[in-house]
Amino acid sequence: MKQEIAEKWADALESGKYQQGKGGLHKDNQFCCLGVLCDIFSRENNKRWISDDISPFNSILGKDDILPSKVKRWAGMKSATGILKSNDLVTYNDAPQQVKKRKDFNFKDIAGLIRRNWKKL
Is this prediction's pTM over 0.85? Predict the structure, then answer.
């Protein structure tokens, strides 16, 4: 992925401005780690989050669970879920017990993964 965007993303995750959520990109005031990247994209590209009665999650560019292809291209990501080896950032965010046998993997932990692995993402 692009280093400049990886740094912005990691900084945003570490900022304390985002409350971590699970199961989708953005719901109420909560975001998954990919939702934070989408929020950066939305602010830089004047795109809006959309809420509807179909999904409990807000969507951006028609997606509410993975990166939209436009965001993926903008960030230079290789996958829509942030694949790292045999796991992805979605799993670290939503089900860390499957990866590291941990109860949680917070945004600061995920920011560290992004900083160390931005070339692979």
Answer: yes
